[in-house]
Structures are given as structure tokens and as C-alpha cells.
Amino acid sequence: MKEITILGSTGSIGVNTLVVISQHPDKFNVKALTANTNIDVFLKQCIQYKPEYAVMVNEDCASKLEERLKKDAPEVSVLTGIDGLLTVAELDDVDYVMAAIVGAAGLLPTLGAAKKGKRILLANKEALVMSGKLFMDTVIENNAELIPIDSEHNAIFQCTSAANASSISNIMLTASGGPFLNTPLRELSSKTPKQAYKHPKWEMGRKISVDSATMMNKGLEVIEASWLFNVKNEAIKVLIHPQSIIHSLVEYKDGSVLAQLGNPDMRIPIAYGLAWPDRIETHVQRLDLLDIAHLEFKEAEAARFPCIQLAREALKQGGTSCAILNAANEVAVNEFLNKRIKFTDISIIIESVMSDITHNSTNTLDAILSDDAWARDKAEEIIRDKVL
Ligand code: NAD
Ligand code: MG
Q1: Ligand 1 proximity of 376 Cβ (cutoff 6 Å)
Q2: Which neighbouring-strand residues pair with 252?
Q3: What's the CATH number for 318-388?
Q4: Cα separation of 250 and 171, whole Å?
Q5: Which DSSP string corresponds to 172-235?
Q6: Which of 151, 166, 356, 379 would staple 328 via disulfide (CB 3.0–4.6 Å)?
Q7: What is the reported pLDDT for 387?
Q8: pLDDT on residue 245
Q9: Closest CA to ligand 1's atom 40
Q10: Cα 362 to Cα 119: distance, rounded to the nearest angstrom
Q11: Of the bound ligands, which one is closest to the alpha carbon of residue 244?
């Protein structure tokens, strides 16, 4: 029986993780759940799964949750704040930590799980993008297991399990292209948040859905892949594949190309991460290749998706540039969702913040956190002063 902490259990990945776990009650037990502010969903999860700990990061919400749990699940201990997140990520008797908080807020608890040598099921790509080498070093030094849950990286992990790293010549990350793949470029600036987060293939949280529309998601995934698989920027290709059947491919020196295929359903990579090196049933709809008949591919146009190039540039710069890119993107996406800026302003803001980077050679945790804060202030200043 494996004891599990789910960081971000009320989100799209968190909910899917609970679905897979509840299909295998003989294998997994929910030790702790965490959420930010969504009390209604969190309360139901606490009553159904009766974790030992429930962390509601927001303090007011935590007090309300405690009150409401008194009747139905008084045995659940309610914790709050970042301290609560760190506690449940680092518990001695937790085996697996699902890192499914969105954005930079997931960095410290995910790093905490790495320090304690847990198996980390990494959905929270922003944590790795921000901290890169620091995160990978922490994983190695503490014998943690890092299993990517992002579907592309999970696919590559599956395709490289028997490989010698030096035999890989290229990684090809597939991308659906998001909702605006075929939108005339002049219409992009008037796209609304609702149109941007309506993803054609995947049901995901709002931030990653907007990232998919700008394709910053793929940019973050290029950075993520470079750290996970120790592959250079130039050897990571992006390939648009609107059907989202092939989740990524690896080309080897001898010309062989391995790919992982499946219907687009996050329960597959989640189950893989939970069961690895075994496999478990997911009840996901099986792939019918005769029904699909044709697989389509397309190049990602630079003019439509400038965020991919911005991410590659940050990766090339190294230091804290990826943390700065990520922070500027988080602010810009949030402002777009709040209808304060246009869709096309997102990449302009990130580029403008990045053009002000002056010092970024180290990437200690302190440097990462302080440059993250600097980039957020800078992005907000650009929006406030309307220098767009
Ligand atoms: P989501 O918005 O649906 O859920 C986010 C979760 O994080 C929620 O439980 C929320 O309570 C929690 N959270 C938000 N802000 C927080 C804060 N400040 N402090 C603590 N907790 C906070 O997001 P999602 O779609 O489930 O994505 C989660 C992560 O997984 C993201 O990093 C995303 O890039 C990655 N991911 C998601 C998918 C997907 O299919 N949804 C696929 C690949 C990768
Ligand atoms: Mg992905």
C-alpha cells in the first residue's frame, strides 16, 4: 500500500488522480490533500477520502473547512499556508507526492518532496522550469524518483526507459496547437479568455489552457524536457499534431523513432506514474487506429506562437531567466483572464520583462525567488503604465 499526498487535489490533474486511485484501493491510500480556495470541492474530497491531513492554503477558507468538517469527518486534521503544504509534502510515511499545484506556488512543496526522497509525480511543470538544475540536483542527491506526468514528457519517459541517453538524437514534443491554430493572425488580438481556455482536445485548468493557446505551454515543456532528459535546446523539436494521439516521439541515432500513443486522457500518464514500473488498469477508452485512419502534423508558425521562441531564449540564457519567463507569463495570463490585457499582449509583456534582465548567473533558491518577484513587479508595472 502506497501512501500519497496530492498537492492541488481540486484541480484537473488532482481530480483525475483521485479517480485513478479510487479504482485501486488495494494499492494506494490518500494521506493528504491540498487546495487553495475551492472549499466546496475540497470538502467533498475530504469527506470521501478521509485523508489524515487536509491543507487549505487560504487561512479564512481553512477555518471554514475545519468548521464544516466537524460533523462529517472530524478525524481530518486541517492545516494551512505554505507550512501546511511543506508538512504534507515531507511527511515521513508518505511514499508518493503528486505535484499538481499550478504555477510557482508549487515550487517549495515539490522541492520539499524531492529533499525527502519521495517519488514525485510531476505535473507542476512550472516548478521545474523555475528551478531547473537546483531541482534536478535535489532529486539526485536525495534519491527521489521523478516521474513526469505532463503527457509529452510521460511519453518520452516511456520511450526512453531502455535507452542510453547518448543514443538519443532528437526529442519531438507534439502539440495540439490549441484553439487558435487556424485563426487569422489579425483576429488574435480580439480573442476572449473564454475562447482561449476552450481547448479542443484536453480539459485542463485555465492557466495551462491559455498557455496552450499561446503555446507558451510548449515553450515551458521544451525547458522541462531539457532538464528531465538532459537534452539540448536544439535537439528538442516541436511538432503540431492537432489530434493529440501521439503524445511525443524520440528519434535515436540509428534513425529509429519511438512514440507513445493513446487517447488524450490524463488518467493514462497519472496511472503510469503511480504504478511505474508496473502498469494498472485505467478504464480509459482504447485507441482505435482504423477509426482515426490518418495522423496529421504541421509546423508551429513563429509569428503565431512567439512564446515558444521566448522560452527557448530563456533556456539559452540559463541562470534565473526561465524563472523570470515563467513569472512574467503567470502575471500576463492572469491579467488576460481578468480582461485587463489583450491575448496578444501576453507575449509582448514577457518579451519586455525579459529585455530588462541584467543579472542572472546563479540559480540558488534565493536568487530564483527574488528574480521571480522582480519579474512579477516588472510585468505589473508594464501593464500599469500601459507601455504596450
Ligand atoms: P487547475 O487550475 O485545474 O488546478 C490547480 C490546483 O492548484 C488546484 O487544486 C488549486 O487549488 C491549486 N492551487 C492554485 N493556486 C494555488 C496556490 N497559490 N497555492 C496552493 N495551491 C494552489 O490546474 P491543472 O490543470 O490541474 O494543472 C496543474 C498543473 O499540472 C499545472 O502546472 C499544469 O501545467 C500541469 N499539467 C496539467 C495538465 C492537465 O491536463 N490539466 C496536463 C499537463 C500538465
Ligand atoms: Mg503537456
Answers
A1: no
A2: 168
A3: 1.10.1740.10
A4: 5
A5: EEEE---TTTTS-GGGGGG--HHHHS--SS----HHHHHHHHHTHHHHHHHHHHHHHHT--GGG
A6: 379
A7: 58
A8: 98
A9: 204
A10: 27
A11: 2
* Top mutation candidate among 13, 39, 128, 176 for ligand 1, by most atoms within 8 Å of CB: 13
Residue 289 CA to ligand 1 center (angstroms) comes to: 31
Q: How confident is the model over 326-365, as pLDDT tens digits?
A: 999 999 999 999 999 999 999 999 999 999 998 667 889 9
CB-ligand 1 contact for 18 (6 Å cutoff): no
Ligand 1 pocket, 16 CB below 6 A?
no
Listed by start position, the domains of the chain span: 2-148, 151-304, 318-388
Cα separation, 313 vs 310, whole angstroms: 5
Q: Which fold has domain 2-148?
A: Rossmann fold (3.40.50)
- At 130-163, the pLDDT tens digits run 999 999 999 999 999 999 999 999 999 999 987 8
Beta-carbon contacts of 10 under 8 Å, excluding residues fewer than 6 positions away, are 35, 36, 38, 41, 42, 45
Smallest Cα–Cα separation from 221: which of 87, 326, 327?
326
CA of 266 from ligand 2 middle (Å) equals 10
